[in-house]
Amino acid sequence: MSTVDVTDELAAFLRTRRERLDPRDLGLPVRSSRRTPGLRREEVAELAGISVDYVVRLEQARGLRPSADVVEALAHALRLRPDERAYLFGLTRQRPVVADKAASVASPSLARMVADLSPRPAMLVNHRYDVLAWNDEMARLFVDFGALPVGRRNAIWVCLTDPRMRELYVDRARVVREGVAHLRTAWAAHPEDQVLADLIAECAARDREVARLWAEQDVRVNARGSKVLRHPDVGVVAVEFETLRPVQDPDQLLVVHRAADDESQAALDVLLA
User: Fold this and answer.
1) Within 13 Å and on the Cβ side, how many CA atoms surround 226?
2) What's the CA dihedral at 164, 167, 168, 172 to 10 degrees?
3) Which residues form the HTH cro/C1-type domain (predicted)?
4) How far apart are CA 133 and CA 125, in angstroms?
5) Element (H, E) at 258
6) Which of 57, 145, 162, 169 has the highest Cβ tally under 10 A?
7) CATH fold of 6-91, please?
8) Residue 177 has what DSSP assignment?
9) Peptide bond preceding 119: is omega within 30 degrees of 0, i.e. cis?
10) pLDDT per position as a tens digit, 175-220
11) How far is CA 143 from CA 5, 29, 116, 119, 130, in A?
């Protein structure tokens, strides 16, 4: 297969998406003079809030590069599915508009996966690190999120403010620094998320160290790493963690832990028996 011409592919994609739509499904009049299936270019332009000439030039592959706002408007006008919307953004070399509404409920299939990952401690979080699902092993190793009020089931908040966690981490200073840097990264990606902003403000008000680290403006994505725990039941446990982002639910992150060495695995076996 030869290399795809992105401009031609964009034009063809827009035409085929337009032609598959039924005007009646969008509440548009059906005139007997229609010679082609689907919507007219004029109707797409009106639905997207752009000029007819612009739609014509896009469908004729005349080298336009629409802005992210125009791509979003076209995706809405053409009633694109999420995967089609992502494809359109990819063709136009634009970044999709990110919704700041965080997932509040775990995807059923991902929640089952968290349970199926036993005996590895695992949890499912959103971009704020609100904990949406966790297995028993996660609760035994860190904290039982089910015993916390729903509004406090946040991994960052627990790490930074829960008194029980202050003695858990052997290298607490590093964990706190990385946690604050992760919060800043999430905040920059979701500047309109007021719940996230309130979480950051509360953590900074509760702990001077958090406030100091926030002012340093460090950024970091904590997607992979290690932690050494001083567990009250089994002593020192070193764990490694990996964060995975599902394609179908990109705002739900799967965090999986495993023992970092044989001694830690033995301790986990005792803890989780």
Assistant:
1) 9
2) 120
3) 30-85
4) 7
5) strand 253-259
6) 145
7) 434 Repressor (Amino-terminal Domain) (1.10.260)
8) H
9) yes
10) 889 888 888 888 888 888 889 899 899 989 988 988 999 888 888 8
11) 53, 59, 19, 16, 14
